[in-house]
Automatic annotation (TrEMBL):
UniProt keyword annotation of Signal present: no
Organism: Ideonella livida
Keyword terms: Isomerase
Classification via InterPro entries: RbsD-like_sf, RbsD/FucU_mutarotase, RbsD_FucU
Reaction(s) catalysed (UniProt annotation): alpha-L-fucose = beta-L-fucose; beta-D-ribopyranose = beta-D-ribofuranose
Example GO molecular function: D-ribose pyranase activity
Gene Ontology BP term (one): fucose metabolic process
Name of the protein described by the UniProt record: RbsD or FucU transport
Length: 155
């Protein structure tokens, strides 16, 4: 146990977060997500971390307590668009997540992009790791792009 670090962050997850560099991505996924297949995909195996006792909102909160989002891109957050719904539709979980991200100062809703299911899978294949939660709400899958930690240089 470490002081000041969310106890939900396991040693394996802390290792993944520490090894990620600027622009690397991590996926926080619901319990229905095809995590094993995508973790073992053609781009080589990636860490698959199971946190079955927590939902997407709680795990995202813990991860983002240590992981800065990429300020150099317009949309450092992507989430899976609910299939067969009109443009702009958000599930209750997605609405709560966007509100949580904005309230914590991580990202405003315009910085969070709904991504078609198979396009989302393509991004997941390039991600550094997948965190599989116990979230039962379908389409509760979010991808976060890591930013930098450090002093901002003045012009």
């Amino acid at each position: 146990m470490l002081k000041g670090i969310d106890p939900l962050l396991t040693p394996d997850l802390l290792k993944v977060l520490a090894e990620m560099g600027h622009g690397d991505e991590i996926v926080i996924a619901d319990a229905n997500f095809t995590a094993k297949t995508l973790a073992e995909g053609p781009h080589g195996p990636k860490p698959l971390i199971h946190l079955p006792g927590a939902g997407v909102e709680r795990v995202s909160q813990a991860v983002l307590s240590l992981l800065p989002l990429d300020a150099a891109v317009d949309q450092p957050v992507a989430f899976m668009k609910v299939c067969d719904t009109p443009e702009g539709y958000l599930s209750a979980l997605q609405r709560r997540m966007l509100a949580q991200l904005a309230a914590a100062g991580h990202a405003q809703p315009g910085q969070c992009k709904a991504t078609e299911r198979f396009a989302f899978y393509d991004r997941v294949r390039r991600a550094q790791a997948i965190v599989l939660t116990g979230e039962l709400q379908p389409y509760g899958n979010f991808l976060f792009k890591k930013g930098v930690i450090g002093e901002v240089l003045a012009p």
